[in-house]
Amino acid sequence: MAAVPIQTLAVLAAALALGRIVESPRVPWVSTLPAWLLPALILLTLTLNNAIDTLRVLSLARGSRLGAWLAGFSQATLFITAIAGLLTNLENPWNLAAFAGGVAFGSVLGIVIEARLAPGHRLVRIVSSRSGAAITEALRREGWGATELPARGQEGMVTLIWCHVARRDAGAVTERVLALDPEAFITAQPVRLFLGGWRA
Amino acid sequence: MLEPLALPAALLPFVIFGLRVADMTLDTLRVLFVLRGRKTLAWLLGFAQSAIWVVAISSVLRHVDNLWNIVGYAGGFATGTVVGMLIEERLALGHGHVRVISPQRGAALAAAIRAAGYAVTELAGRGRDGTVAVLTCSVRRRDISRVTRQVHSLDPEAFVTVEDVRPLHRGFWGA
User: Fold this and answer.
1) Best residue in A136, A195, A198, A199 to probe B by mutation, most B CBs within 10 Å?
2) Is B121 on the interface with A (CB under 8 A)?
3) Number of domains within chain B
4) Complex ipTM above 0.85?
5) Domain limits for position B41
6) Which of A117, A144, A179 is the C-terminal boundary of a domain?
7) Is there a contact between A61 and B32 if contact means CB atoms under 8 Å apart?
8) CA distance B167 to B169
């Protein structure tokens, strides 16, 4: 959770510095650029802009107010200082293509960055027909809390395991489980609030 | 669009800020409603949001030489997002699913939650230190904090998580 505001602050500083360099984004400044450079600049800045915007939407979906505020402020500053000035000549098809490409790339980049930062928590649900006890043992030994529930599947008794972990650990949990039971059925879902519990 | 009003330049940053707060509040509500599958509300909010945005952006772009207009624009954008989140939490449309894992006081917790008028399903689970009670409880989102507070006051050790659930059918959703 704390990782997002720090990263966003860095992006905010970069956006402000960029706005400073650009100073006046009006047409006179843009018209001094060589024509081939403009599409490249549009692509680059819009990719950055939309990556930050995607981070903003993902933080608001997660309920992180500080992250959403910081990402929103840096994104809007970047857009209005640098990008709006660059978008003066959209009749040029290359500029238009760079605009659309930047929006598309930026969204993907934002998702990739968010997945790498991986804030929040996950509930990993495991259904195992054979190695339920071994899996819970192994998970607890790694320091993750696990609760076992006896359940019945198509072919008799199965073990249902709930394991609440930090989101960045969800991949490691899955690997650990699959190593013990390659046929385990695993799903992960986001969870909001966290009270109590133990972590090793 | 704002030109005919002939606003004094000193006032423009505040007007831009206000417009941006309004449109981003709507946009944030729209995104959150999209995530919950509320189509009509999402449509209405999207329409209103883009109408306000056009006014705000055109007035900033015409006066982008004033730093305060930019600050008003960016500050309004960021603040609007947070205001939208606060409003959505206050409206609390939809349902949430509360999961409680309690090593000791499962039966008492279930009885208390039921006495408060919510439905609980109890399951027996096994934790690190032996048998635990697992309670699952689907309630309206605006009731979530009431349930978690009650759980916490009866059993401070209980492990509680909340997740969003899509609207379901039937069952018992609280008295």
Assistant:
1) A195
2) no
3) 2
4) no
5) 3-91
6) A117
7) yes
8) 7
